[in-house]
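Subgroup meeting minutes
Present: P.N., E.W., G.H.
Scribe: E.W.

1. P.N. recapped why we're keeping a running log of single-chain structure predictions: easier to compare across weeks, and new members can see raw inputs and outputs side by side.
2. G.H. added today's entry (106 aa).
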Amino acid sequence: MNKIIFCILFFFLLLVSTPGLSTPALSSSEANAVLKQAMSLHKQAIANEGGWRITGKFMKKAKKLLDKGDRRKALDVAIRAREFAELSIMQADMEKKSWSEPPYLK
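Output recorded in log:
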């Protein structure tokens, strides 16, 4: 009897804790907002001469996923694109601060 109750409780807890069943539905506006942030940051990175090609690839992939209706994956890919854009800006800033003309060119 105890084993049956334990099994029922275990499967109930497993069912409740499953991410696919307990996560709220996403709207396409959430993924679009993140994608717009990534695009803006990517433009800023390009202006600083530090844009990464992979950021553009991830933004295109996120757009395609949104068009297909796969909002969860689109949001994940858009977040990744935003992270790449932020990192590329940081890299460009660090390169500008640390770069100096080599002595043999002076």
